[in-house]
Amino acid sequence: MTICIIHTGGTIAMRAGPDGLAPADGVLEAGLEALARAGIARGETEVVHLTPAIDSANARFADWNRIAEVIHAGQSHYSGFVVTHGTDTLAYTAAALSFALVGLARPVIVTGSMLPFEAAGTDARQNLGDALLAATRAPAGVWVQFAGKLMAGARVRKAHSHRVDAFTARDGGPSLRRGAPALLPFGAPEIAVLSMAPNTSPRAFASALAAVDGAVLRVFGAGTIPNAPPIEAALMAASARGALMMAVSQCGAGGVALGTYAAGSAMARAGVVDGGQITESAAYAKLAHAPAHGGRDTLASDLCGEMA
User: Fold this and answer.
1) Is 84 a catalytic residue?
2) Catalytic residue among 8, 11, 89, 168
3) CB neighbours of 274 closer than 8 A, spacing ≥ 6?
4) pTM above 0.70, yes or no
């Protein structure tokens, strides 16, 4: 069967111009032809262009839905899927697809590159070639293929802004949300990422939290925040009106364990969900998804290995 390549945009298919890199027609197709001539890409492929293409920094929930719809509708026709994507928000999209697609029967491989296909020393050739191979061999689920590594989609983070091995992930199985095959699309909630710092302004924090349907709280270490009554009052008010909140650690590893320190007890009293090992990008995608699909119960559940 055919592999479907869903091209959303990104550096991989850009070309240098007078004002810098910009999307260019035919770059991806020419790259696929070069891979085929080199014997790297074998078998049938079909390219589906998402139009208009997106700069990944401008990705919206509706774009996640567009990608998920193509995958959900095409599982009986295609043997696997490759999603080419800009690297800035690639981890967010991989997590979003992990939550939106239940009971996947095919592998979905998200990839991109730090350099365009036509650039000297490009990583696009390896990444796309590896992704096409993974689409024929990987178990069903959402994966990220980058710099020779196949990583579970809901566990990935972008860890470097320039290096070709830009992504890291915790060890673990594929991002496969089990259940009867279904597409659970994103709605349009207002979600914020609020980062704690010493002497965080309670007024600014309360104002931001009052304006959203949900928030990722980037907390200190294993789960502490400034122990200030106005901050706790803001958390309690948000909880009372139904806002969803999840705590993630500012540390790159180790995760959150709410209740370890008294300085984090206000979050527990306000019903903030302990994100465990979840990445910030996965937490954001999950908070965007949960309001329409189970609310806090869904947010607190480990759906596809993102929190463990």
Assistant:
1) no
2) 11
3) 223, 246, 247, 256, 257, 258, 259, 300
4) yes
Nearest to 128, CA basis, from 83, 173, 174: 83
For the beta carbon of residue 39, count every other beta carbon within 10 angstroms.
Answer: 8
What token pair was written down for 305?
A: 């290995």
Distances (CA, A) of 83 to 8, 121, 289, 290: 7, 22, 20, 23
Say how far apart CA 208 and CA 195 lie, in whole Å.
11
Q: Is 98 within 8 Å of 88 (Cβ atoms)?
A: no
Distance, in Å, from the CA atom of 112 to the CA atom of 301, rounded to the nearest integer, reads: 30
**What would the pLDDT profile of 230-281 be if each residue is shown by its tens digit?**
999 999 999 999 999 999 999 988 999 998 888 889 999 999 999 999 999 9
pLDDT in tens, 165-219: 999 999 877 789 999 999 999 999 999 999 999 999 999 999 999 999 999 999 9
Residue 167: strand pairing partners: 158
CB 99 within 8 A of CB 61: no
Give the domains, in start order, of the chain with CATH numbers: 2-183 (3.40.50.1170), 191-299 (3.40.50.40)
Burial (CB count <10 Å: 0-12, 13-18, 19+), residue 162: exposed
